[in-house]
Each structure stands twice: as C-alpha cells, then as structure tokens.
Amino acid sequence: MKKVEAIIKPFKLDDVKDALNEIEISGMTVSEVKGYGRQQGHSELYRGAEYVVDFLPKIKIEIIVKDDDVKAVIDTITKIAKTGKIGDGKIFVTPIEQVIRIRTNESGEDAI
Q1: How confident is the model at residue 37 (pLDDT cuts 50, 70, 90)?
Q2: CB 4 within 8 A of CB 70
Q3: pLDDT greater at residue 48 or residue 106
Q4: How would DSSP label each residue in the chain?
Q5: Which pLDDT does position 56 carry in this prediction?
Q6: Strand partners, 64
Q7: CA distances from 83 to 9, 74, 77, 78 (A)
Q8: 100 φ, ψ to 5°?
Q9: CA atoms of 30 and 32, how far apart (whole Å)
Q10: From CA 11, how far away is CA 66, in angstroms rounded?
Q11: Do residues 7 and 58 touch, judged by C-beta distance below 8 A?
C-alpha cells in the first residue's frame, strides 16, 4: 500500500476529485494548506501599503491506495491538476505499513 499526497491549486480540487471517482478512487482526505516553492509568494497593495504574501493557499489531498493503483492515481492527478503555470503543485508517494479501519477492525488492503 502507498500514501499519495498531492499539493494542488484550490480551484482544481473538484475536477481532481471527480476524475479520481471515475477511476474508482473515492476515499481521500483533503486539507487547506499554505506554502510556497518556486513561486516565492508575491507582493500586494493594501490601503496604499505594499506587503509580501509569502505563503500561498493550496489544497493537500491524501489518498491511501493499493500498489497497483498508484500509477493511475498519479497519472490522473497530474493530467487534471496541470495548468502549465508555476505553482501547479507536487505529488509525494510513501509506503504505508498498516491500515486499520476502526469501526470493523479490518486491516491491510481490506481497510482501504
């Protein structure tokens, strides 16, 4: 099993969710996060004063999938979240040792 974490632009969330549902990936955790990479934030004017916005709003999607589904999930997120502009985001894949469903006590891939 693998954990796929994707950091994407907020306006792409619904499209990514719908595309993942189409490939039968329905369970995910979504968080509103802030960060920056190569974008380095930007300057804005507020009441005549300039200030720097260092951390930009992003969406973090976390999905636990079977090893066989990792490539399809990555390909789907990459295709749908891509705008071709700086700040499209990143995808991280890490191994998961164990998953346990609290309600039924199922474990492993059965708990996904």
Answers
A1: confident
A2: yes
A3: 106
A4: -EEEEEEE-GGGHHHHHHHHHHTT----EEEEEEE-STT--EEEEETTEEEEE-SEEEEEEEEEE-GGGHHHHHHHHHHHH--SSTT--EEEEEE----B-TTT--BGGGG-
A5: 84
A6: 3
A7: 9, 16, 12, 10
A8: -130, 125
A9: 7
A10: 27
A11: yes
Task: Indicate the residue type of 7.
Answer: I
Q: Virtual CA dihedral for 98, 102, 107, 111, nearest 10 degrees?
A: -100
**Quick one: which of 62, 55, 66, 50 has its CA closest to 111?**
66
What is the C-alpha to C-alpha distance for residues 88 and 24, in angstroms, rounded to an integer?
24
Tens-digit pLDDT profile for residues 62-98: 999 999 999 999 999 999 999 998 889 999 999 999 9
Confidence class for position 47, pLDDT limits 50, 70, 90 = confident
Neighbours of 2 (CB within 10 A): 17
The residue-averaged pLDDT of 51-62 equals 84
DSSP type of residue 26: -
| The residue to which tokens 């999607």 are assigned | 61
Residue 72 CB neighbours (<10 A): 14
